[in-house]
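Quick note —
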Amino acid sequence: MSEFHLTEDQQDCLQELINIAMGQASDQLARYLDTFVYLKVPSIESIDAKDLLQTLSQQKNTMAVVSQGFFGYEGIRGEALLSYQEEDSGRIGDLLGYEPDELSQDEQLIDISSILTTTFLNVFARQIDNQMSYNAPKLLPSVQNCLSEHLQEMTFNWDLALKININYQVTDYSFNCNMILLIPETAIINIKKVLDRILAEF
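Predicted structure written out below.
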């Protein structure tokens, strides 16, 4: 087995940690946004770098993608990509309680992305006794070559990554977006050590 691939116990442990983090993050977001936030159980899979762009391009009607890097202790790091459909982008101002023309649509996308990313990852980090720091979020055009250039310019080099896909739904506003967490192979090896430590305690 490759150093990268998770054992069944490690996969179950990671899934449980993410589920717990999702539940707590959903509650925090609901309180912050004053509305119900539903997070679907995420899919976790390994993905080749060359397949990632194709995966993103298959998401229909994607208007924009916001990228935000994150890093913690013990070599844990990655990139969060949040994708939005055109019909959802106009609802962000209402969701965040902004006045008309208070912020541009691009600024609204960056704001909501930062809230969604940091809320979930901060809760997840606490589950593994870690703490996350973040790069400034960056709005990317959904044009395929722009995404390709960004993936090549990420702060880490990777050929294989763990892709965790999380879907957010805010029912009162008919708003939803997808968050993909890309964790490079070197960071996964470090996460496996953390998972083994957690498993050894049970």
